Amino acid sequence: MRSLVTGVAGFIGSHLAERLLQENHHVVGVDCFTDYYAKSLKKANVKRLLKEPDFSFVEENLLTARLPELLKDCDYIFHQAAQAGVRSSWGAEFEIYTSLNVLATQRLLEACKGLNIRKFIYASSSSVYGDAQELPLREESILKPVSPYGVTKLAAEQLCYSYWKNYQIPTSSLRYFTVYGPRQRPDMAFHRFMRALLDGEPIEIYGDGKQTRDFTFVSDIVNGNLLAMQSALVGGVFNLGGGSRVVLNDVLETVQQVAGKGAKIVYRDVQRGDVMHTLADTSKAMSELAYRPQVDLSTGLKEQWEWLRETFS
Ligand code: UGA
C-alpha cells in the first residue's frame, strides 16, 4: 500500500504517518512548513519518520507541487494539510486560509481525476457546524460556521463531495472535534495551558470559561482515519469525537493535577469565531466504521504533559 499524507509535519499528520508505517504502508509525506508556528517544532514532529526506510518526504506547497509525481501509484490520500486555527482566520489572513484550505484541496482533487485512488480522506472540522442549535451535533445538523476558518473547511468538504459525485473520486470527510495529545499545536488550549504551568505564567481563558468542548485524543483520530480508509462507504462525512465533553473551567482542575502545579487564572475577552459548545454524535462512525474512542481525558492529558515537559523544559 502506498499512502500520501499531506501536512505530514503537523500535529495529526505526523502521528498518522507513523501509524501507517506500522501498518506496512509506504508513506509519502508532503509539507511546506508554513509559518503558522515554529518550523523547529514541525521538524521535530517528522524526526522519527525521516529515519524510516518506507517513508519519503517531499517539501512542497500543494499549490505549486508537481502533483502527478506525488500521486504516482498512490492508493490512499490523507489530506491533513491546512491553515489551522479558528481565531486567526479574520482579516487579511483569510487569503491564506482560502489558498491553503480551499484552493489546495481543489488542486489535489483535480489531480486525482483518472487515477486509481482507493480512498481520499479529508480532515474536516467540528467548526463547520458553528454555534449548535442542539446537541449532540449530528452529521445532518445545520452547518453554519461562525469563523472564516470554518467556512473554508466546509467549502473543502463540499469540494470532496462534488468530486465524488462527478468524477467518482472516493472521498470521505472526517469532522475532527478539538484534537489534543503530544505535538498539539502551540496555539491550542491544552498546549497553552501546559506551557503556562511549565513556565510559571498565568493561564488565560477566553470568555467566562463556561464553554464546553468534546476533546478527542490524537490516537483516536488516527484510528478513525484507518477505519474510514478500510470502509466501503464513500462520498460521506463522519464525526470523530472523543466522548469527553467538558466545561473549560472544570478541565483546568485536571490539567493542573496532571502537571502537579497550579497557576493563576486570568479571564480575557471572548474570541471572535469561537463556538460556545461542541459535542459529537458519533453513532454514525460507531455503527458504520466501528469507531470507538479509547483514550479518556486524564490519560490523554498525562501523555500530552509528558511530551510537553520533555520538549520545552
Ligand atoms: C480546535 C482547532 O484549533 C481547530 O483547528 C479545529 O478545527 C477545531 O478544534 C475542531 O474542533 O475542529 P478549538 O475548539 O478552538 O479549535 O480548540 P482549542 O484551541 O483547544 O480551544 C478550546 C477552547 O479553549 C476554546 O473555547 C478557546 O477559546 C479556549 N482557549 C484556547 C482559551 O480559553 N485559552 C487559550 O489560551 C486557548
Tell me briefly what this model is.
This protein is of the alpha/beta class and 313 residues long. The protein has helices spanning 11-22, 39-50, 67-70, 94-112, 148-167, 189-199, 218-230, 248-259, 283-289, 297-312, and strands at 2-6, 26-31, 55-59, 76-79, 119-125, 171-176, 179-180, 203-206, 212-217, 236-240, 244-247, 265-268. The chain has a single domain, classed as Rossmann fold.
Helices and strands in order:
Elements: E1 2-6, H1 11-22, E2 26-31, H2 39-50, E3 55-59, H3 67-70, E4 76-79, H4 94-112, E5 119-125, H5 148-167, E6 171-176, E7 179-180, H6 189-199, E8 203-206, E9 212-217, H7 218-230, E10 236-240, E11 244-247, H8 248-259, E12 265-268, H9 283-289, H10 297-312
Parallel strand pairs: 1-2, 1-4, 2-3, 4-5, 5-6, 6-10, 7-9, 8-12
Antiparallel strand pairs: 9-11
What does this protein look like?
The chain has 313 residues and is of the alpha/beta class. It has one domain: 3-Layer(aba) Sandwich (Rossmann fold), CATH 3.40.50.720. 40% of the residues lie in helices and 19% in strands. The protein has a seven-stranded parallel sheet, sandwiched between helices. Helix 1 links the parallel strand 1 (2-6) and strand 2 (26-31). The longest helix is centred in the middle third of the chain and has 20 residues, at 148-167. The mean pLDDT is 98. Uridine-5'-diphosphate-glucuronic acid binds next to helix 6 and strand 8.
